[in-house]
Batch of 2 targets.
Target 1
Amino acid sequence: MESLISKIQAIGTKTLADISAASDLATLEGFRVSVLGKKGSLSEVLKGLGSVSAEERPKIGAAANEVKAKIEGALESKREGLEAKDLEQKLASERLDVSIPARKLHRGSLHPITQTTRRMVEVLSRLGFDLLTGPEIETDYFCFEAVNIPADHPARDQQDTFFMGPGLVLRTQTTAIQTRAMRGKKWPIRILCPGAVYRKDNDATHSPMFHQLEGLWIDKGVKMSDLKGTLEFFAKEMFGSATRVRLRPSYFSFVEPGAEIDVSCFKCDGKDPSCKICKGTGWMEILGAGMVHPKLLELAGYDPKEVSGFAFGMGIDRIAMMAHDVPDLRLLFEGDQRFNSQF
Ligand code: PHE
């Protein structure tokens, strides 16, 4: 009997020492199984109880229970200690550094043509112009016939116009919107018409699709000086207050008289003979304009003796190119995000 009790106590002493030395939860669990498990050392010793006398049995049982309770207590408190240590390690290694800068979001930007169009419209709408758009697939009638371009006019040539089907074209100019705007509507009319136009052209300064901004003002007593004043205001707002404007006589079938309008070079003001923007001339041609042809007024049912008007049309893309120093028009339409996001 003595020997069984001392075996039990020896197991207890060794196990308690092992538990106190354990450095992780897995090792701890290993000790528990190897001592208290079904085939553990303590369980094995207790199997020998059968051969012990009934009188001795309770003493050995009590000794075994005491050792078992000690081991369980030691296991429990060691486990708590190791779990706390584990948690601390985890917290230390998985710490979030909230001061690290956030990842950059990729934000889109407005295309330079959109930006330029908005700026132009914003400037001119301060003079009371309203916005009006028209279809890009246009009838031959509105694109040509109604703006005084007869059937045999070279502007209709296959080389310029994209034909879409009988009587339909891709509009070659926003001037196509003029007659649409006047039709069935009484004057006064003061509109701005931005939009894409199409011509069979493709090189560094011409694209098959480009953008124009058309202006039309019809009212009693509108004069050529109103046209010049409007464009002067526009040029100064767009290019700076020192900008000057000049008119050169020109021909467009839908105006009489017609003019081409130049603005003084905002880059060099004529002082740099090698200026890329004005090519040393000091002037940049930005638009065509003139007094609305009486034929167009008559077509709309207006009396040319009672009302008059002016119209102008300008290329938006060229103005965007000049403003941002873009060397090739085609860059604007390639959709390259590296180019587009610079503006
Ligand atoms: N539509 C002309 C062009 O495309 C520009 C213009 C518009 C000229 C209005 C005069 C009046 O060149």
Target 2
Amino acid sequence: MSFFNTDKPFLIAGPCSAESQEQVLETAAGLAPLNIHLFRAGVWKPRTRPGSFEGYGAEALSWLQEAKRQYGIKFTVEVAEPAHIELALSYGADVLWIGARTTVNPFQVQKLADALRGTNVPVMVKNPVNPDIELWMGAIERFEKVGIEDVAAIHRGFSGYSSSVGYRNQPNWPIPIELKRRLPELAIICDPSHITGSRSLIAEVAQKAMDMHFDGLMIETHPNPDEAMSDAKQQITPARLGEILANLIVRTESTSDMSSQVQLEYLRQLMDAVDAEVIDLLAKRLEISSQIGEVKKVCNMTAYQPARWREIVAVTTDRAEKHNLSPEFIVGLYEKIHHESIRRQLTILGTTEEEIKK
Ligand code: PEP
Ligand code: MN
């Protein structure tokens, strides 16, 4: 059982930055009744521009240690240097997290992984600032390779010049979903605070994460959000977090409700039957494609014909619209089908499988 696969959702809360012992203790006191799994606070802050508040470092670690002693809540801090790791662990940090600006740099991530070799301290890896799933996975793998057994991912959105959805960072949901598809055992925690950048939008993104099967939430909380020394606009009070959690619909993959189970079983049988038909029809379509390939071979025609592809797009999107299906979806599907068709015809024209893959 992984450290992060506890009761869902795995909850992390606490201020963006540890600002004083009073602020840390007051936040912890507010969070204690909410049964969160981890208290978070930045003690070394990776600020975009110089001159901003950069955290209180080791001194702040002693405040977190005290909060842990008084309230029994485990704590996590962001580390970006091997020296941070050493200090954080010496003050009893239970979990470490890697910030978005660090995940982008494989040299730095490797240094951190090397510093953690042999410790088996749980590590959470935030997505890199750029929407690159390979870079995110690469960082996760570097920690796994040095023997860290409990690694989790944190989705905090991706930066862009401006966000199309009015958030501070674009969620790009398909990326964390693809990560979950590739690494089903990996816990993925959503950070609605850094995605939205705005306290009024945190509840809706937290719910979306639950709807999408995320394993947990990391939400910035501060006793006086407006006075926060960093990320003031996106922090909420522990009381507000309590309200959000009380209203959160936590979704599960299965249900114990018998009548819903029966209904689902029935609908899935219908769906399976449709899938069987879809596959049979695809096989039929590809068989026709092979026959076309034979004709093209005799007449020295090309496998790929742009005009024919445009015709397929026009005809299929037209039909899709009649069924209220999104044209993008249908064109995406047909790109794949057409690609397979061309591959078959190329083989008939004499190109080998290996050549097609090159
Ligand atoms: C943070 O969690 O306060 C933080 C700096 O986050 P990120 O690395 O996602 O910007
Ligand atoms: Mn922050």
